[in-house]
Amino acid sequence: MTTEEFSCPGCDQTIEVNDEMRETILEVGCPVCTAVVSPDDFVQISSGSSS
Questions:
Q1: CB under 8 A, 24+ apart: contacts of 15-18
Q2: CA angle, 36 then 38 then 44, to 5°
Q3: What is the domain partition of the chain in residue ranges?
Q4: What pTM, to 2 d.p., does this model score?
Q5: Nearest partner of 15 among 32, 27, 37, judged by Cα
């Protein structure tokens, strides 16, 4: 599972999210201020590769 950092363009809140949370935020907006977000507002910080 991938961990990403979400930075809201509306309220500047920064949250670490997993894949499921990322998809939800893209659908419904920022969980803090409900601003519309885009994939550009996420930065990958770790990848859960199983090797």
A1: 16/45, 17/42
A2: 130
A3: 2-47
A4: 0.83
A5: 32
